[in-house]
Each structure stands twice: as C-alpha cells, then as structure tokens.
Please model this.
Amino acid sequence: MLVPSSKCAVPDIYAPCQTSACALLRSAVWARAYRTGVGNVWKNRQVLRMLVSRDLQRKYRNFRLGYLWSILEPLGMTTVLWFVFSVLLGGRKLGEQPYFLFLSVAILPWWWFTKGISASTRVFRGNISPLTISLLPTEISVVRVVLVSMADFALSLPIILIAMVITWTFPGPLILLFPVAILVQVILMYGVGLFVASVSALVPDFARIVRIVMRAMFYLTPVLYAIANIPAGARDIAVFNPLVSILGLYRIGFWPTESEGAVHFAIGLAVIAVFTIVGIITFRRLEPRILKEA
Amino acid sequence: MARIRIEPELPYAVEFDRVSLSMPRSKRRGGQGTRHRIRRLAGESSRQQVPVFTDVSVSILPGESVAILGGVKSGREEFLRLAAGTLVPDSGRVHRQDRVVPILDDSRCLTPSYTTRQNIYLTAGLLGMTPEETTGRLDWIVDMAQAGKWLDSYLRGAPRNMRQRLVWTVSMATGARIFAIEKSLVIGHGEFMERCWSHVEGIRASGVTFLVASDEREVLERFCDRALVLRGGRIIADTSVEEGLGFIRPARRTDPTEQPDDRDDN
Model:
C-alpha cells in the first residue's frame, strides 16, 4: 500500500540503478513527491484558498475586535511571559537582550506550531463525513489547518515590528533567513501534521499524548531561553529536536550568536526531512482506513 | 490525485478488478448508544472488521445506467463510494475512465451554519470545482434548485427539501460524465421532478453513465438498463432491471431505515 498510486514509478527508481543511478533516483523521487504531495495541493489551490479564508472568517466572525485578536492575544501572552521571566525572575541570565524581542521572535512561530499540530489531531475526528463525497486529496484537510494557523502567525508578525521599534534593535542581513525558516517550518508541520492527524484518527488516545508532548517540548525547546543556555553536553542531544534549528533560523538575524554549528544545523535539517517523510508515508498507509471511518 | 486515479484510455466507465473490502463493525451497524455499549461489554470490539465485498469484479460501459440493488446491509453505499474513490479497497483495484461524482446523503456535506451560497461553493469545491467554475454556474444552480430566496441566509433556516435540491443540483453542475447516486435519481415533486427527469434523461442521451442505488422501483424501471444485485459480499446477479428487482423483496420499502428521504416537510 506504500505505493498505491504509482505503479509506474517503482521500476523507474529501481531498474536503471546500475547505470546512472543517482540522477534517475533523484528525478524519480522528485516526480513522485510532486505528484503525491505538492502537486496535489497546488492543483487544488483555489479551493484551498476558499477553505482557509472561510475558516479565518468563521474564527473571528463573532468578536467585536475581529482580526485584531490575532495580534492582541499573542501580545498579551508574550507580555506576561516577558514580565515573569525578565522582571520577576530577572536575576537569572536568560536568553539575549532585549528579552521581549528575543522572546517574541521565537514564541510566535512556536505558537503557530502548537496551534497547527493540535488542530491537526482533530482533522479526521468529529465530523469527517464530508470525506464520503470529497474528491479532493485527503491531505488537503491537513494543509488547511496548517495554513490557517500560519495565517494567524502572519497576522501576529507586527508584534515583532513593534518590539523592534520599542527596543530600537534592528536585525542584520541574516534576517533574510527568516522566510527560509517559515518555509522549513511549513514543510515540517506538513509532515508532523499528517502523522498526527492520521494516527489520532484511528487511535483517539494519541491526541492526548500529543498534547503532553507539546507541553514538554515548550520547555525543552529554546523558546524562553537561548541555545547558549543549554549545557554544552546536552546541546548535542538538543539538535535532534527539529524546532531548535528552525527557531535558530528565526533568531539568527538579530543575534548571530544564536546560530549552532554547521554540523548541528545539518543534523537538524536531516531530522526535519525524516519527520516529513515518515509523516507522509504513515498517512499514505493509513489513508484507506481513515476513509473507512468517515 | 493520489487516491483517485483517472485512466482516460480505459474502455469501461468504471471497472472493479477483484475488489475486496471490509469495514469497521461500528460503521456497518448503527453503532452509537446503549446497543453499542452492550455489544462492547459482550466483547464485540468496535474495531472488528466485517467483510463487505469479497473478490468482486464488474465492468460498466460508458453510457450505461446501472441499478445497484440489494438489501439493507448489502453494501450499496460502499459500492458507490468505491466507484467514486472516496473509499479505497483492501485488495484489488477500481479503475475509472473519468471523475465519478457521488451523490450521497445530503446531510453529509452541507453545513447548516453557513449560508446557502457558501454551501454551494463548499460542496462544489469538495467535488473538485474551483470557485471560478462555481461562479460561472451559480445562476444555473440557483435557478435549478430554486434557492434564490435563501441564497444569503443560513442554511439551517432553509427547508429540508431545499438541501436535497441543492446537493443534487451542485453535483449535476459539475458536468461529470459518471455519477454514483445513492438515494434519488430524481428528487422533489411535480414540476421540479419533471425538470429533474428532463435533465437526467438529456445527459443520459449524451452518453453519461449512471450508477443508481435508489429504492424507487418505478424510477429504476423507467431509467436503468442493467441491474447488479449485491448480496453477501458478492454480485449474485447481473441482469435486466425487471429480473433484478425480482431478487428484492417488495416489502423492503416498509422498513423504516430504508425509506427514501424525499418527504416534503416544508
């Protein structure tokens, strides 16, 4: 069931391996990834845009302040965390200065990640009966929640601008890595979201486990603190957390010292690739069973 | 699309190639509430799989109108979902020449908390139409479904039979060449029903394929030219509609769970 849709791609990968193995393998894998993943989504981008904008409208429809809440809520939460960890517990040296900016640059992507992943646990649960008639690729539902949480993130980005102006700190040229970080995070969330959505569709307990893991990850990931705060020995383990390298990419424009070594970064990217591939494979295997639950 | 592959060179409209399928038991019987809990206590797990189809092979030619007949749990809905590709067989393959548009229970895909217009776009989107295409056919949909009065009000306030008209009309507006219809080939009463008839007979004449799992014998006798009788996970007969209907107990329509949902409680 691993290759349900590509009867033809399998011989392409394996047969001419002896000759120009690498190039062929690469092109076949890319073609397959396009056909089963990105291509599917791209073909349905207009429907997807409609779904995402409708979700956003519904989310903010009942509030007087509307979309302003997507800024106000994270702003309030960031202020609380800043107050606790910088003013109340200011004795310990935590992260970089100015702390408010340091915090907001990492915590907004972090919230995007948690919101997206916890929303994907519910994608194939509850009311999934539209799947009985849906001719769209099933993974569109996961892409949809990832994009909705991403829109929230994008709307909350002015917080970073406000923090930059207030603290009068401006980034260096490495800020160009900020969009790269967003792209990498989308890829990671696609994979993790597919995994989480398909497993929790079949095992409802998994959603609870995800919630606990996300709580733990909040403290195990350098959001409140810097990579430099991690003891040197533990740092080699921490690089296997995919969020470490992504948050490092977000922060590197402001604090070049926030970068890990190139080796650590490569490990981080490799872990992200593995997470994404595992998510896609898991989803492909479980998709027939998810459809039966509809 | 990944799970729905279209093979334009296929000589058949839809071809089932040694298809086997089993479904979770909870989905095969009304699985909620006390009865469900008693069954769980009695050791009957809800994750237990029950076979629906074993080794079914059938091919349907383009332009045919096929009645899918069978009893209450004979798997007619699963047959249509397999044809449309919203269900993937455990083994075997389903080949389809073109997109198969399913018309199943209308409560499935409509959201009462959205307006009628939003529901049109949403349902059309699920069936693979882009918003631009939907906009282009919106006038036809609204006119056909007689939804003008409720177009911008929430669907929960609209009459029940309008939802049915809406799903039927949006599905027809996809302009698909193959339809898999669960409940009613034609819906409504009186003049609306006549318009439905003229529409479906018009597109059948142009070579559209229909799979109909309706309970309305008169409709099947008038419209279909072939019948498949499902029983016990197999196709036990592949005949004309008259003979096929002979396999089915006529009293079946008195079963309350099987009554076609075409009451006009407006």
Observations:
- Residues 22-51 of chain B form one domain.
- Chain B touches chain A through 37 residues (CB under 8 Å).
